[in-house]
Amino acid sequence: MRQWMKALCDCKGISPLYAAPQGVEVTTRVKEEKEFTFVLNHTDQMQKMNIGKHEQKELLSGLSACGDIELPPKSVMIFEMVKEAETDGGSSTIAPTICESAG
Length: 103
What we know:
The protein has one helix spanning 2-12; strands at residues 24-31, 34-41, 47-50, 54-58, 64-65, 68-71, 76-85, 92-94, 97-98. By secondary structure, it is mainly β. Strands 1, 2, 4, 5, 7, 8 and 9 form a seven-stranded antiparallel β-sheet that branches. Strands 3-6 form a two-stranded antiparallel sheet. It is globular.
């Protein structure tokens, strides 16, 4: 079933938000000018994953993060990326800070 789902997603051009290890769930929600990414570690193990080179604020700790992060067992992290209004008619784009240490 997993292979079939991957093939279907590949065929339709659907890709995951982040490359998450098995047992880690990642989902994004957008509200007004903010994008929230929820990362849930459902496992009993410490997990590592990369959240990209754009700095994001982790709302539960108040710290900023980018690149490789560690997820404690059974933990939740919520990242916020603020959107910035463009000057050409009011649409908005994500305007993140680039993290120096992310590769």
